[in-house]
Write a structure and sequence with these properties.
Layout (H helix, E strand, L loop, with lengths): L5 H17 L8 E7 L2 E6 L3 H14 L13 E4 L2 E6 L2 E6 L18 H18 L3 H17 L4 H12 L3 H14 L2 E3 L6 H10 L1 H7 L11 E3 L1
Parallel strand pairs: 6-7
Antiparallel strand pairs: 1-2, 3-4, 4-5
Helix pairs in contact: 3-4, 3-5, 3-6, 4-5
Amino acid sequence: MGSNVAPTYANIYMAVLEEQYMYSSRYWSHVRAWWRYIDDVFVIWEGHLQELLEFHCELNNIFPELGFTVTHSYDQVQFLDTLVYKDGSSLKTDLFVKSTDRNSLLQFNSHHPRNMVESLSWSQMLRVRRIVTDESLLDSRLDVMCKKFVDRGYPDSTVTTHRKRVKEISRTDTRQQNKMSKDMRIPFVSTFNTASLQMNNILVKHWGLLKQGLPGVDGFTQPPIFFI
């Protein structure tokens, strides 16, 4: 998707197709759950396998230009970077890594904003913590992620510190912390340039003007999170 707005267009397009065609399909009664990220869909199907294949064929007949593909299993299935698998009567999740995967993490000496580079190992460790539900697998998954960062030039001390911090929180806590940060801080997104740090400093310095001018707006009680 070469354009910045392409994911939004694709998301709207898929939402319209769902409303107009998929929800009214005679096979829709077999859909227990339907979660979509742009054009990738995770489905829990309660019908027979043959009915799933017929539903897939129906979609491709209606939208031949899209070319839907289907991957199905009674035991486990991959969705984006997550492997969802059955454990008795429960569903668990683990990291999914393609067999052709290469370590493409950003090099530590890359000419990117330092705060972004230095926080990358933390965000990826946190991703591992959120996805891996089996505590017995967590250490090995974190070890692999640590090695990837060290191989890309990240200081071992920084990577180890982030790993330790992640181990001290639960999966529930990671979601609550993420929700709190979104509720309490306004994100300010800017295109990166050499003056980005100065822009951030100016914004924070004068944030009190907005806070005083609009005391009834809760979002202005704290300075925004600055993204570049």
